[in-house]
Design a protein that fits this description.
This protein has a seven-stranded parallel β-sheet with strand order 3-2-1-4-5-6-7, sandwiched between helices. It has one domain: NAD(P)-binding Rossmann-like Domain (Rossmann fold), CATH 3.40.50. The chain is built from nine helices and seven strands; from the N terminus they run βαβαβαβαβαβααβαα. The protein has 262 residues and is of the alpha/beta class. It starts with 8 loop residues before the first strand and ends with a helix. This is SDR family oxidoreductase. Keywords: Oxidoreductase. It holds the Pfam family adh_short.
């Protein structure tokens, strides 16, 4: 049964498009008020206007680069200056890079780690006391099917997502008695702007899903009697992720490298 989020507040990062925007729409349908965080203010405002008109919820857009110094403190200040208490958090912001590590732009690698890992951990820590005290909401950290095995030529990206998976599963255990529902969502290839940022669709493995399909997977897990600490979106993706966990790394890594470079 779909859970009611009426009267709660959810912070969603990477909310200007794709999976983040779909989480915003889905939680707004369920009555949640929203704080939408992303870099592109025009898109955030357009989405906020759409959701207010359609569902009558309060929506607070915050244009911010979460990889920038002091960004997490800025989110906290923005939220608390408005007298809001955070019941749900969706850490969706992140990006990937493709190519040999030795040729990668060093500042861009640093930015990737700060966003995919640093901001996610800091936001989770910042709002976790509120999330667990409320016990009415959810914590979703967006990982990836790349989390289940090393990925040559996307080495840093896959490692950040492996961190997200491990971190979230541990937090799910720590908070298991609070009422907060915690899961790491692991999508495969999704029709978003992800591959535009990566710079190539050649790194896609498997068939595309839509953002709607990915978020529906997450919501089914969150609505379940017992929310799993992680969930893979798509049956084929789940099978691939399982193989990545049980097969020897000596076999998995060359196969993954071939898929990424073909």
């Amino acid at each position: 049964m779909a859970r009611n989020h009426a009267g709660t507040t959810a912070v969603i990062t990477g909310a200007s498009s794709g999976i983040g925007a779909e989480f915003a729409r889905t939680l707004a349908v369920r009555g949640a008020n929203l704080v939408l965080v992303a870099r592109r203010e025009d898109r955030l405002i357009a989405l906020a206007d759409e959701l207010v008109a359609a569902h009558g919820v309060a929506v607070h857009p915050l244009a911010l680069d979460l990889a920038a110094p002091g960004a997490v403190d800025a989110v906290e200040t923005f939220v608390h200056d408005r007298g809001l208490t955070v019941d749900s958090l969706v850490n969706n912001a992140g990006f990937g890079m493709h190519g040999p590590l030795a040729e990668a732009d060093a500042p861009r690698i640093d930015e990737q780690v700060r966003l995919n890992v640093g901001a996610l951990v800091a936001l989770t820590r910042a709002f976790l006391p509120e999330l667990t005290a409320s016990g009415r909401g959810v914590l979703v950290n967006v990982a990836s099917t790349a989390a289940f095995q090393p990925v040559p030529f996307m080495a840093t990206y896959a490692a950040t997502k492996a961190f997200v998976l491990s971190f979230t599963e541990a937090v799910a255990f720590e908070t298991r008695d609070s009422g907060l529902r915690v899961t790491a969502l692991a999508p495969g290839a999704t029709r978003t702007e992800f591959f535009d940022v990566v710079g190539s669709e050649g790194v896609r493995v498997g068939n595309y899903q839509t953002s709607e399909e990915v978020v529906a997977t997450a919501m089914r897990a969150l609505d379940a009697r017992r929310t799993p600490p992680s969930v893979v979106s798509g049956g084929r993706n789940a099978a691939t992720a399982l193989m990545g966990r049980i097969m020897p790394r000596s076999i998995v890594i060359p196969i993954t490298a071939r898929l990424i470079t073909d």
